[in-house]
Design brief:
The protein is α/β, with parallel strands linked by helices. It contains 18 helices and eight strands. It has a single domain, classed as TIM Barrel.
């Protein structure tokens, strides 16, 4: 009987072999679960966000029955302590805004950067984030709008330091300290659970860090989807300048934040570059160049980008071949997997794409047939990982069992 360490090493090697477009001992299975482990393990989202131990216990119950080759810790159950102390404005969660404690939390897009503020953000991004974006994004951090360090030289510091006597600034600093303590407490608990996954469960952590396409960073959290899509027409050059600016510090911060972690996987969550959101010409101009630069830089640092492609990339597959071979994993939601294998086979590892609708409403035999077809289509020659098409909150446990069992038995090479 293998030891926990041997199980851990075998799982990690299995995924790394697939990432290098080699044929592993069996097809790896790495479903992208969100709230499903909590729901399956006897918890609920509201309590898991409020009490880390509640979520951890639910994850333990989940891992008793399912052993993926890479797994999540409870990081997606964001702690309500930090959400409350910061006064976050773009987040709605169960137990506060949502009455149903099992309902998934929600992100709220708004224009946290206004249309006429591109020049300001490009000129001094740090100042813009501190004075504009942070106060708009966190109700308890309004005092940041009154702080400025640019003119601190010589006796300029007197004016900037005097601002700290302002009651609103004091309240903001107190709220930031409390928020920092809440987050650090959560980070420590996450670290403990990650060690538990490795030492007690033998399951490698699915991520070393998270990343986003630079276009999405602006669109998701600053301009909002409708606005940034119009900005491609109305603020073309300013948008490109800001994308370039954000790309540089995103690369630096990601590599620094992921170095030394137990696993090398950097998860890129892609949102707005899908077939139905922008033309091929727009993708080639606004979306892909910065994302490609970001992916390659992270791969060159010895990390493994996992590109989580939401929506369909059926018209984008040829672009993905511009990433050096064997350096990235592409996880697809609605992209044609047979075509993805045809284009990327022998070049890059692909993941996908058991539909969430099937896992929730389908029958186990449908899941079995779908998984077998995926293995027949995508596994030959290596470079395939079984995955759910999208993040799973609700699913029929029997269908999840069917996905795991089929991959384990039919996926042996």
């Amino acid at each position: 009987m293998s030891t926990i360490k041997q199980q851990y090493d075998a799982r990690l090697k299995r995924v790394m072999d697939a990432a290098a477009v080699k044929e592993p001992d069996q097809v790896p299975i790495v479903p992208v679960f969100q709230a499903f482990p909590v729901n399956y393990g006897g918890g609920n989202i509201a309590d898991a966000m409020k009490d880390f131990d509640h979520g951890a216990k639910a994850y333990d119950n989940f891992y008793k029955d399912f052993q993926p080759d890479l797994g999540w810790d409870p990081i997606l159950m964001f702690p309500t302590s930090y959400l409350e102390s910061s006064g976050i404005t773009w987040f709605r969660w169960p137990g506060k805004h949502l009455e149903d404690h099992t309902q998934m939390y929600q992100f709220i897009e708004e224009e946290y950067m206004k249309e006429d503020e591109y020049p300001e953000a490009i000129k001094d991004f740090t100042k813009f984030m501190m004075n504009k974006w942070m106060p708009r994004s966190f109700a308890n951090f309004q005092g940041l709008a009154k702080l400025d360090f640019r003119n601190n030289m010589w006796f300029g510091h007197m004016g900037s330091l005097a601002a700290y006597s302002d009651p609103e600034v004091i309240q903001t600093l107190e709220a930031m300290v409390e928020t920092g303590k809440n987050l650090m407490d959560w980070f420590i608990k996450l670290g403990g659970y990650q060690a538990h996954m490795q030492n007690d469960l033998g399951i490698p952590l699915l991520y070393a860090g998270f990343a986003y396409a630079p276009f999405d960073m602006i669109g998701d959290s600053m301009r909002g989807t409708p606005s940034i899509l119009m900005d491609m027409y109305d603020h073309e050059e300013e948008l490109l300048q800001l994308i370039d600016l954000i790309t540089e510090f995103a690369i630096t911060d990601t590599i620094a934040g992921c170095s030394g972690k137990s696993t090398p996987f950097v998860w890129y969550w892609l949102h707005k570059g899908i077939d139905s959101f922008m033309s091929d010409e727009q993708f080639a101009k606004f979306y892909w160049p910065s994302l490609k630069k970001y992916i390659i830089a992270v791969a060159d640092a010895g990390l493994t980008p996992v590109i989580y492609v939401e929506g369909a990339y059926n018209t984008r597959l040829e672009y993905l071949k511009e990433i050096p071979p064997g350096k990235a994993i592409f996880s697809f939601e609605y992209t044609d997997m047979a075509e993805a294998k045809k284009v990327l086979g022998g070049h890059s590892c692909i993941m996908g794409d058991v539909p969430a609708v099937m896992l929730t409403y389908g029958k186990p035999e449908e899941v079995v047939d779908y998984c077998k077809n995926l293995i027949d289509t995508c596994a030959p020659g290596g470079g395939f990982i079984m995955d759910s098409g999208t993040m799973i909150d609700d699913a029929n446990p029997r269908n999840i069992e069917a996905m795991f069992e089929t991959t384990l038995k039919y996926g042996k090479r």
